[in-house]
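Review form for a predicted model. The reviewer records the input and the model, then writes brief findings.
Reviewer: anonymous (R2)
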Amino acid sequence: MTVTADDVDTAISHVVAALSPAAGADWSVQAGTLEWDCRQTAEHIGDCLMSYAGQIVTRPAGRYVRFMANADQDASPAEVLEFAETGARILIATVLTASPQMRAYHPTGMADPEGFAAMGCVEALLHGQDIAHGLGLPFDPPRDVCARVLARMFPEAVAALEAVDPWQALLFSTGRTELPGRPRLGQWRWRGAPLTE
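Model under review:
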């Protein structure tokens, strides 16, 4: 199972479709159980995915590229959501043009384009769900994307959670929920490096 730029596209398209109905709402409310509000969380999505694109382009071996991106202070919720989507679209374009042999720093291992695409999906989906929860919106991401992302980022979870819905397994693997007979994880770590390395 391979995570591609198409999966990032599907993930961010789902996030935008799920959150757009609340574009006129108050995004200063808390995003799920996070300390951030919905606006800050959407900004984080955009910044994080642009950061992953920066890693792919510059390929640093021991650190993140030194920049932060954020929406204008007076940006509306719709514009902040557009900023998040922009970060995803930049990551998509970067993944599409990158060599599969490219490696760049991430604290969880020297990642390839697939790894950064998968990380982008995790960030978009999980934080999209946080925002949706804060705004009282439903959030039900595509299970095929969740399954591919889970297999790439949490390979040890695939066999252990084989019978679990892929979205619930992804939430569990990132410490977001508990499962029957399995307490919520206090610590977790995904795999940035390719599975063969």
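Findings: The radius of gyration is 16 Å.
Further findings: The longest helix spans residues 113-135.
Recommendation: see findings above.
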